[in-house]
Amino acid sequence: MVNKAILIGRLGKDPEIKYLPDGTMVTNFNLATDEQWKDKNGEKVQKTEWHKIVTYRKLAEICGNYLVKGSLVFIEGKIQTRSWDDKDGVKHYMTEIVANEMKMLDSKGQGQGKSDDVSAPASSAQSNGTPMEDVPF
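RE: above sequence
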């Protein structure tokens, strides 16, 4: 059996960074993918689909440090659905992509967001203890 999702899209906003009780870093962000076609009248139709992406550990650190709103990225991972009961006992469901791979597709220095972290010099990228040459992209 296979559970694999592959997406290319843009971030809708900057990633949100959280930590689990055991200290594991988690990064969440929404990714937009677009689809275009012509309807029966020849009119162009565009549909945007939003995907919830979650990353853990080292990949979460990389996403948190280098991705910003508007970043174009390749995401590969698995589809996962979680459920929980709210305070009124109503069950809620959330489907998300648990990413195990991310590749930045923007050209260097072509930041789409409010930050230029993507093209930051090696010295500022080492603030998390990771030299630029060790970043897997």
